[in-house]
């Protein structure tokens, strides 16, 4: 016989407030606010002052994908005053399995525009800052300086290190999440009070060792679980309640339904946060993570010129078959990205002819290029901006 004890656990054991609230108390709540957020206001740890902090908060979410979707939806519902969204991608049908902020009617739409529309559908009072751009060294500090908390919803190491380093330079808390198949992790990196990402992972893994989402897959519901955990940590930081995951990491195993919370410590010899007064960004995060440099990129105009000149090029589409079926560049052959990591692609590609790789936006093709370079191929480049840049060039050229 299963007996369920129906009592509020938080009233029996309350977590101590370890860190002061990140956000100051804002304007007084209106009657409409009291109605909308009534279920939060009755929580003793939040109350009206906590809700005023939430309404006064400015949170930036880097990525409007699998993790960014639940983060943005729940923070909007909670009443976060300003939500910034950074993403340069467009909604693709393959995104819909896990990126629940987007729908069928959003396919082909900018992700930041799609996210803004859904946020306002949930809560029209939220201010949404759209940043449709690629985050890089030239813009990260200016953008991050406008927000109280940064949420990392990215899926590549170069951007993850960039986010971490910028947060250390600016003394901003970074709420990190990551997912892989059935497994997820979440933590809060805040160098002023604990370790930064580099304390735990001083250097990225060798390129190709950790497959990306397109290669390995991810259970969509896992993104919701880890993203909701990130949203919870963000609200704790805003209001100053509970024990945020600063100096701790939650590891979730979806197949075994287990949670492990491990302690992570600040590295006194950390190359970045050991002395934050000297912290600075790297010049090239792609090179740091073993990705190809800009010299390996080719523009759509340059590719078109080489094709028009009759140059014999091995033009290779590294996307998936359903993407190829929708549209592909004439003269290309399809070799999906996953084949570059198990050696199958190398059996199909000649070494004595120039190779140009392309994908949707240039991310997957950059990874595939790196795999070919490691296999000894020399004359390899990839299309900057992917097939999107090719289509834009054809429309305007």
Distinctive features:
eight-stranded mixed beta sheet; alpha/beta; 397 residues; 34% helix; single chain
Describe, in short, the structure shown:
The protein is of the alpha/beta class and 397 residues long. The chain contains 16 helices and 13 strands. The protein is 34% helix and 15% strand.
Structure description:
- The chain is 34% helix and 15% strand.
- The chain contains 16 helices and 13 strands.
- The strands form two sheets. An eight-stranded mixed β-sheet has the order 3-2-1-4-5-6-7-8, with helices on both faces. Strands 9-13-12-10-11 form a five-stranded parallel β-sheet.
- Helix 5 packs across helix 11.
- The radius of gyration is 23 Å and the shape is globular.
- It starts with 8 loop residues before the first helix and ends with a helix.
- Residues 1-15 have low confidence and may be disordered.
Largest sheet: 8 strands, mixed
Mean model confidence by pLDDT: 89
Strand order of the largest sheet: 3-2-1-4-5-6-7-8
Radius of gyration: 23 Å
Low-confidence stretches: 1-15
Helix/strand structural class: alpha/beta
Find the count of extended strands (DSSP E, 2+ residues): 13
User: Percent helix among the residues?
Assistant: 25-40%
- Beta content comes to 15-25%
Overall morphology:
globular
Helical run tally? 16
Distance from N terminus to C terminus (CA atoms, Å) equals: 73 Å
Order of helices and strands: HHHHEHEHEHEHEEHHHEEHEHEHEEHEH
């Amino acid at each position: 016989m299963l007996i369920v004890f129906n009592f509020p656990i938080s009233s029996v054991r309350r977590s101590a407030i370890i860190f002061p609230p990140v956000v100051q108390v804002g304007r007084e709540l209106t009657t409409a606010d009291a109605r909308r957020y009534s279920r939060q206001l009755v929580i003793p740890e939040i109350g009206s002052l906590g809700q005023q902090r939430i309404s006064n908060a400015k949170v930036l979410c880097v990525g409007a994908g699998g993790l960014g979707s639940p983060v943005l939806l729940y923070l909007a519902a909670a009443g976060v005053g300003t939500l910034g969204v950074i993403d340069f991608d467009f909604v693709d049908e393959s995104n819909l399995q896990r990126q629940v902020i987007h729908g069928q009617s959003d396919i082909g739409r900018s992700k930041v525009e799609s996210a803004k529309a859904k946020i306002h559908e949930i809560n029209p009072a939220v201010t949404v800052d759209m940043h449709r751009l690629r985050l890089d060294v030239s813009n990260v500090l200016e953008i991050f300086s406008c927000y109280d908390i940064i949420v990392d919803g990215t899926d590549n190491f170069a951007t993850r290190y960039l986010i971490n380093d910028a947060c250390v330079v600016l003394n901003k808390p970074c709420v990190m999440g990551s997912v892989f198949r059935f497994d997820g992790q979440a933590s809060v990196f805040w160098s002023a009070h604990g370790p930064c990402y580099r304390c735990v992972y001083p250097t990225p893994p060798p390129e190709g060792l950790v497959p990306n989402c397109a290669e390995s897959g991810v259970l969509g519901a896992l993104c919701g679980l880890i993203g909701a955990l990130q949203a919870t940590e963000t609200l704790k930081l805003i209001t100053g309640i509970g024990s945020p995951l600063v100096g701790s990491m939650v590891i979730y195993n979806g197949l075994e339904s287990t949670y492990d919370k491990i302690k992570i410590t600040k590295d006194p010899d950390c190359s970045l946060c050991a002395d934050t007064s000297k912290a600075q960004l790297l010049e090239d995060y792609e090179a740091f993570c073993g990705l190809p440099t800009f010299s390996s990129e080719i523009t759509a105009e340059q590719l078109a010129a080489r094709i028009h000149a009759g140059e014999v090029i091995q033009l290779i589409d590294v996307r998936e078959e359903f993407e190829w079926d929708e549209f592909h560049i004439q003269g290309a052959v399809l070799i999906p990205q996953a084949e570059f990591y198990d050696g199958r692609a190398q059996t199909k590609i000649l070494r004595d002819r120039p190779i140009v790789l392309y994908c949707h936006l240039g991310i997957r093709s950059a990874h595939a290029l790196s795999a070919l370079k490691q296999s000894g191929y020399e004359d390899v480049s990839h299309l900057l901006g992917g097939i999107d840049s090719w289509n834009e060039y054809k429309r305007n050229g």
